[in-house]
Write a structure and sequence with these properties.
heterodimer; A: eight-stranded mixed β-sheet; four-stranded antiparallel β-sheet; 27 helices; globular; B: seven-stranded mixed β-sheet; disordered C terminus
Chain lengths: 801, 236
């Protein structure tokens, strides 16, 4: 029988480990950028894999001292959690994403950060693995507590993010393993265990009383802003949506791509940052005595065309475009924003600052994801304003692996359907060189129009360029001559140039703002021609439209272009075109090396060279790869369904872990070597392949349901596959326990190793081939397990899994 | 007296040793500067002789953090702290040539940074006014420029938005720090016929320099060649 204290301790520890993982992801999003979330997942899985290896090397020692080793590991895990953030922020270790490719120095620091975060996960996994091994005959029960605890951990982390600042959360979470250690403590534990308990309690107490300061990269917007005179953060609010900071400085002004004809002083405004990234200034519709800055930007183009009566502002953020609409006298404005904390700030604490924006009679603010809004409401508008794409100077590809369901061909199509006959879509973007963002906007608009039977979009698309920004507008019906005249007058008054306009002359494209060469205009024209497929194939960057299946608008890297780009821009510059994607590649390489070195290589010493080893390899590598592929694919896809990554992650991770936990609990009933396990694996494959094809249509049909109803739909969709996916691992372990117990660590290690590698690999597959391909990859991986399992059925004796 | 003489003798010896040890370093620095100008600057088409001479003269290695001094003359920007960089040598030369500096001119620089661009300009023109918003950078640059003997550079720690109205108008304005708007006061402080150069883009990416020209009250901009001299490949 398994002592209940061990089950509870495993459950608590699992909850603490997952919650710590999510807290680390948030902290790395604040100090660096969001793509380090993948690093955290890799590190955690690496810890689990390495623990399996350690268990295999020191199995006898640890098992003989289980009563002492188990609680000691829990205490040490707590100590490592409490110290991890402080160590990672120490000046000798702290790395900077921007400097990773500027030399080897920061790559070494990244490795050190890896190591610091690896330790708590390794210790947690060692404790869990010890319990798995000790009670391998009841693996289903322990695995259930492990997965159920992990599921609860996700919810716990989200809860803590609402009430605590990010830097305080890890220390609070470190209490969980310490508490679970106390639960598992036996009377005869001995001095070593008590020392570990004391050490962890001291460590946690220090971390709670003196939480370490989080130091953002010096290249983050907030760091640059903090260098302004008298810079200060006047208000801070944490939530799972990010750390919102209200910032003020007498030198902070907002005037993006301002026309050089602007006559007044540029006013000073406070601004809001989320996780250290700029999200917008606090403008007031009541601002007096100055010309509205936004009216001297290209974003004013749709208003120059004609009077607008109804406007939909997508991702309103701090309300820049809503303020512009109010000041232009629009009668009915709907603004959509998914972040409830930001909306609450604007309505309450910052209400005075934004001049009662939220209560303005012309404005209706809705808390919703913009894409969901486009899919679920069927009102029509004279103008739909998309959020500004890219930032000044570019993000250096930091956004490359983030899903943007608002900038896909399908999203532009959804917006198109919401336009009145005289309506206009408007997208503003910073000019970049070499041109990428600008071209992808146009290609997406053109492909969207082509799908609606408009093969020559020249009559419905216009674009106006300042020295820094460009605004594209797409009209439902062809531009009228007076509208074209209005656009020309707008350009002349503000010193802008039309880039696209029906009947445009070459001489007017660069009258006020000349470009260095004709590349931009030539490429625009080629996109508008039937030969655009050739351009997609030949251009050095990926400017093919993003789709819902591959919603990576900001991913431009084409591997085959790297030599050419290196030649033209220098090898040192090239990484900064796509730093986000390259960080994932770096993570893949580092994680793969670490996984092989820490997990696989040591196991060769201990595992016998029998024929069954390769079968075990295929069986457990398939599970490791398949589970992560499916989880990552679903995480990506459910962002569209729930509108934000946070709720998507909470629903997907918690449901999958709990359903898989139940599957593992039920696995004891599966006759592993009989006919049932292949049936389970075949069932997983069928569900994954059909899910890959049917999930998106189902989501689009039900996206308008209430959140509760959507969660129920998600449970129905996720549970069957996740339940079955929980079975093969414990079933395999149980098979080994019966036939070849010494190979259990090898199996555990293989599973961990492939989980580590698959985390980054899944992202790369999603970017390169899309969601459907990733789901198919998951099915294929389970096919590998099925094939290995089938071999196993013919195996005999020791080592035959 | 004997002791003093002995001390003087020792000091003399120390000074001679220091000079002896620094002389080859100075030669190396000069040869590195010459090579930098030859390959990175003149080699990429900068022709203005005053600019080339200034780039040969200013000791760039004294404007970067000591830990990076060995690579000061390499073809790259370098971090100088506070999220700021010292621009690639070619960019400094290019920005200098673009404003067509002449002896007797008065130049305003926004974004002193390390002070390197101001020093290069000060080698050519009569007076350079430079503004840095980060106090630590501004103070360090002021001390550095004074130590190097640049008496015709004035450093002010302030918000560059307002320019330097007391000394306006300027023959040219060099904005070394990229901003998402061009402050209207700077346009006003530019002489008619004057030229302003400003970088657009991330300091680590391919920056495009933009030239702003004021002619009879009207303003026109021109995006100039990007950092790398070889133009981006056109699509076939």
């Amino acid at each position: 029988l398994i002592p209940p204290t061990v089950c509870v301790a495993v459950g608590l520890l699992s909850a603490g480990a997952i919650a710590f993982q999510l807290a680390l992801m948030q902290i790395l999003s604040i100090t660096q950028w969001h793509h380090f979330a993948y690093m955290v997942i890799s590190v955690a899985l690496l810890g689990f894999g390495a623990a399996g290896t350690c268990l295999s090397l020191f199995r006898a020692v640890l098992m003989n001292r289980f009563d002492r080793a188990f609680p000691a590991l829990l205490f040490l895990c707590g100590a490592a959690m409490s110290a991890g953030i402080g160590l990672s922020q120490a000046s000798a270790i702290r790395f900077d994403s921007y400097l990773l490719f500027a030399g080897t120095f920061h790559a070494g620091r990244l490795m050190a950060t890896y190591a610091v975060f690896f330790v708590p996960f390794f210790l947690a996994a060692l404790a869990i693995g010890l319990a798995f091994t000790k009670y391998s005959h009841r693996i289903g029960v322990i695995y259930f507590w492990n997965l159920a605890g992990s599921g609860m951990g996700g919810l716990l982390a989200l809860g803590l993010m609402w009430i605590l600042p990010p830097r305080e959360i890890p220390a609070i979470l470190a209490l969980i393993p310490v508490f679970s250690g106390l639960v598992a403590l036996r009377k005869n534990s001995g001095a070593v265990v008590l020392s570990a308990a004391t050490l962890s309690l001291i460590g946690v107490a220090v971390a709670i009383l003196h939480p370490p300061a989080l130091i953002p990269s010096e290249f983050k917007s907030i760091s640059r802003a903090m260098q302004l005179p008298q810079a200060q953060v006047t208000l801070e609010k944490n939530s799972p949506y990010g750390l919102l900071q209200v910032f003020s400085s007498p030198a902070l002004r907002y005037a993006p791509g301002l026309s050089l004809t602007y006559p007044d002083a540029v006013p000073v405004h406070r601004a809001v940052f989320n996780n250290g990234d700029w999200i917008g200034p606090l403008l007031s519709p009541q601002e007096k005595n100055i010309s509205p800055v936004m009216d001297f930007s290209t974003a004013a183009l749709p208003y120059a065309l004609d009077k607008r009566r109804s406007v939909l502002v997508l991702n309103m953020s701090t309300g820049t475009h809503a303020v512009q609409a109010i000041r232009r006298g629009v009668e009915s404005i709907t603004a959509v924003e998914p972040n409830p904390v930001l909306l609450s700030l604007l309505a309450k604490e910052l209400a005075g600052e934004v001049g009662g924006l939220m209560t303005h009679p012309a404005l209706t603010v809705e808390k919703s994801d913009s894409r969901t809004r486009l899919l679920t409401e069927f009102l029509s508008y004279d103008l739909i304003v998309f959020p500004t794409i890219d930032t000044f100077g570019g993000t250096s590809g930091l956004d490359a692996i983030r899903e943007h369901y608002l900038f896909t061909k399908e999203a532009f199509g959804d917006a198109w359907h919401r336009l009145t006959p005289r309506g206009v879509l408007s997208v503003t973007c910073w000019m970049d060189y070499p041109p990428r963002h600008t071209l992808k906007i146009l290609s997406t608009l053109i492909e969207m129009l082509a799908e609606r039977g408009i093969d020559d979009p020249r009559n419905v698309i216009a674009a106006v360029r300042s020295w820094g920004t460009i605004t594209f507008i797409v009209k439902k019906t062809p531009f009228r001559p007076e509208e074209i005249q209005n656009i020309r007058a707008f350009c002349l008054r503000l010193g802008f140039d039309p880039a696209l306009l029906p009947g445009i002359r070459a001489s007017e494209r660069a009258f006020f703002n000349a470009l260095q060469d004709d590349l931009f205009f030539n490429t625009l024209d080629r996109l508008l021609s039937p030969a655009r497929e050739d351009l997609y194939a030949a251009y050095d960057f990926n400017i093919r439209p993003a789709t819902d299946d591959r919603p990576y608008f900001a991913q431009f890297l084409r591997w085959k272009s790297l030599p050419n780009l290196s030649e033209h821009f220098g090898s040192r510059s090239v990484p900064f075109f796509e730093i986000g994607y390259l960080v994932v590649m770096l993570t893949l390489i580092q994680a793969s090396l670490a996984a092989v070195l820490l997990i696989i290589v040591p196991l060769f010493r201990t595992t016998g060279r029998h024929s069954g080893k390769s079968r075990i390899f295929f069986y457990f590598s398939g599970i490791g790869m398949g589970y992560i592929f499916v989880e990552m694919a679903l995480l990506q896809r459910f962002v569209l369904y729930f509108g934000d990554p946070l709720h998507a992650a909470a629903v997907v991770i918690s449901t999958m872990l709990m359903a898989s936990g139940m599957g593992s609990y039920a696995s004891a009933r599966i006759q592993a070597l009989g006919a049932q396990l292949p049936l389970v694996l075949a069932g997983i494959m069928v569900l994954l392949l059909s899910g890959g094809a049917l999930l998106t249509p189902l989501m689009l049909k039900t996206i308008g349901l209430s959140p509760i109803a959507k969660i129920l739909v998600s449970l129905c969709v996720l549970c069957p596959a996740a339940f079955l996916m929980g079975i093969p691992f414990p079933a395999g372990i149980r098979m080994l326990a019966e036939t070849s117990e010494d190979d259990i660590p090898w199996a555990w290690g293989i599973n961990g190793c492939f989980s580590v590698i698959s985390t980054a690999l899944a992202t790369i597959i999603a970017v390169e081939a899309g969601f459907t391909a990733l789901m198919a990859g998951g099915a294929l991986a389970y096919g590998l397990t099925l094939a290995a399992g089938r071999f196993c059925r013919h195996g005999h004796g020791k080592g035959e899994a | 007296m004997l002791e003093e003489a002995a001390m003087n003798k020792w000091w003399g010896l120390i000074i001679i040793l220091l000079l002896a040890s620094s002389a080859p370093a100075g030669d190396i620095d000069q040869s590195q500067r010459d090579a930098m100008v030859r390959t990175q600057i003149a080699g990429r088409g900068i022709k203005d002789t005053a600019t080339l001479q200034a780039m040969r003269t200013v000791p760039r290695h004294l404007f970067v953090p000591s830990s990076l001094a060995d690579s000061a003359y390499q073809d790259q920007p370098m971090p100088i702290g506070y999220g700021q960089t010292i621009s690639q040598p070619y960019i400094v030369a290019y920005m200098t040539e673009v404003i067509r500096p002449k002896a007797g001119q008065k130049i305003l620089e926004i974004g002193t940074g390390s002070g390197y661009q101001a020093a290069v300009l000060a080698e050519i023109v009569k007076q350079v006014y430079t503004i840095e918003i980060v106090p630590e950078l501004g103070r360090t640059a002021r001390e550095r420029l004074q130590q190097l003997g640049y008496r015709n550079v004035q450093v002010r720690v302030a918000d560059g938005y307002d320019g330097w109205p007391e000394q306006a108008p300027f023959d040219a304005i060099v904005v070394t720090a990229a901003a998402d708007y061009i402050p209207p006061p700077l346009i006003r402080q530019l002489k008619d016929g004057g030229r302003m150069v400003i970088p657009v883009g991330s300091p680590f990416l391919v920056q495009t320099l933009m030239l702003v020209e004021k002619e009879k009250g009207g303003i026109k901009t021109t995006s100039l060649t990007p950092v790398r001299f070889v133009p981006f490949r056109r699509s076939p």
